[in-house]
Amino acid sequence: MVPVDEFKAIKVRVTECLHLASAHFGETFPEIPVKFDLTGKVGGYFCVHTCRTTGKVSKYFRFNRVLVRENLNEYVEQICPHEVAHYIALSKWGRGIMPHGVEWKSVMVDVFNLAPDRCHAMNTSGVENIPFVYRCDCQEHRVSKRKHNKMLRGGKYRCNTCRKLIVFVREDAAIDKNINVIPKLFVSTADAPLSEAHIRQIAGMIIEHQVLALVGDPLMTSDSNLQQLAKTLKVSAAAVARHSNTNTLPGGVTHAIIFGDRQIERQQRVATAFEQRGVIVRKVRAEKA
Question: How would you classify the pairing of strands 185-188 and 255-259?
């Protein structure tokens, strides 16, 4: 249900690579933020940003959350060391070096014992989005937004088969192949109020998932907070409810998030009962606000 474990694996691997480099060079390389905000076909990126007003330099890693979920082994084995090697090379030899020069290659080979491959070999078909449909005399053509915009500005493209100009027909609704659907999500904080901290934590656990229906534990007394969670998860208000019977479980639940900070035995029974029904259950503790 939740890609959080995969994100954690990436952060752990980055830390391991930093420790390997520290042991090799006999100096400490501080940990820097790890973000999962890249899109498209780019797998990872080591960023250095200098603020124009303050001159403050910030460094961080960026990874593609969709590709992480679909290619975790590739990330752990190659991409994380690749990006960490950029960080180490910059820290050791400064900005005057080439991005994939001898310094970076030496870190990949001598520190991580890996081939210094510049590009990843992951399947990126899942992140491609080509919703614009064009037509020539012999077939339909699907065109990316970038090429579509070029043609709006006067660019012309011909079919490689019939050699006729392709003409815009329609734009299909974008279908995000990377979104996993949760048909019905059950959330329980026992008798604790559903707080903003809970909502943020739940939203973070189901990144890249689309929730179709949401049901709350009957012990959770605040309907307004449940509606706020629904709004955060982009669930229709008509598909939100609080289960009415404290002695039964709601039907049709496919996924459940159970907070075990209060009424621990009761929460464990609820989680076990759902698991016996084949529900995917995530048992967690609330993060501090």
Answer: parallel
